Amino acid sequence: MQTGSLNDIADSIRTDFTEKNEARDKAIALSRELIRYCSQTIRAIHRREWDRADEQMAEVDNKAAELRAVVLPYPELYHTGYTQDGFKEMVEAHATYAIIKDGPLTMPKTLQVESSTYLLGLAEAATELRRFILDILRREHGDMDEAERLLTWMDDIYDQLVTFDFPDALTHGLRRQTDIVRSVLERTRGDMTQSIRQQRMQEALAQFEAKFVASTQKED
Predict the structure, then answer these.
(1) Residue 25 lies in a domain
(2) What distance lies between CA 90 and its chain's CA centroid?
(3) What are the start-end ranges of the E strands in 56-188?
(4) How far apart are CA 101 and CA 103, in angstroms?
(5) How many domains in the chain?
(6) Which residues have C-beta within 8 Å of that of residue 147, sequence separation ≥ 6?
(7) 3-class DSSP assignment, residue 76
(8) Is 80 helix (H, G, I), strand (E, B) or coil?
(9) Tens-of-pLDDT digits for all 220 residues of the chain?
(10) Cα(54)–Cα(37) distance, integer angstroms
(11) What is the CATH classification number for the domain harbouring 85?
């Protein structure tokens, strides 16, 4: 049985708190950097700046590895909101990149994240797809096939998320995030339906105008 004086015990605990506090400060700073790089990655993806996106994604992975190394010795820091928020944004960046590039999703084990964090990141990627779809719809001759593909991804992600009916203590807010995905999905589907109708109407008017001009020329 080991014993010690009160001062020794207090000094030991103080050292423990000091180390954890230093790790906490580093984790908060790294999480902020990680989130910033994730945001820059998604911005580059929107602009189709793929070289830039690749560079930023490499920084994302590096910062995630640094953050993981700092918090893994301290489970209470690993599971805090700021740490998991950073990892969630990393998942969103990876998922958005894969979907837009029409590639395979990266597995949770490869990204070294918790299952709940992965699902939350995937949910945010689904809502991010709305921005890509709206960008397509705003173009005069938008690629509706691409918009349909992205909408299908949103739909598929929602269909999977809604099946995870587990306590919030395990999923950490997934149900609320799933409701957000459903709302965004419904709005996006409505926007696409309206855009398709307008496009068809414009095509019909163009065809009518062409026929009218042709018939007028014949009469002349």
Answers:
(1) yes
(2) 8
(3) none
(4) 5
(5) 1
(6) 133, 136, 137, 192
(7) helix
(8) coil
(9) 566 799 889 999 999 999 999 999 999 999 999 999 999 999 999 999 999 999 999 999 999 999 999 999 999 999 999 999 999 999 999 999 999 999 999 999 999 999 999 999 999 999 999 999 999 888 756 688 899 999 999 999 999 999 999 999 999 999 999 999 999 999 999 888 876 656 655 555 555 455 545 566 666 5
(10) 11
(11) 1.20.58.2140
**Does residue 1 belong to any structural domain of this protein?**
no
Residue 45 domain flag: yes
The pair of three-digit structure tokens given for residue 156, joined into one six-digit string: 């598929």
Q: Flag whether 43 is in a domain.
A: yes
63's tokens: 């910062």
User: What is the dihedral angle through the alpha carbons of 128, 132, 134, 137, rounded to the nearest 10 degrees?
Assistant: -160
Any residues with CB less than 8 A from the CB of 90 and at least 6 apart, and which?
34, 38, 60, 61, 64, 111, 113, 121
C-alpha to C-alpha distance for 87 and 31, rounded to whole angstroms: 8
Which residue range(s) make up the domain with 13?
6-219
Closest C-alpha among 106, 110, 126, 59 to residue 86 = 59
| CA separation for the pair 124, 88 (Å, rounded) | 9
Spatial contact of 138 and 148, defined as CB atoms under 8 Å apart? no
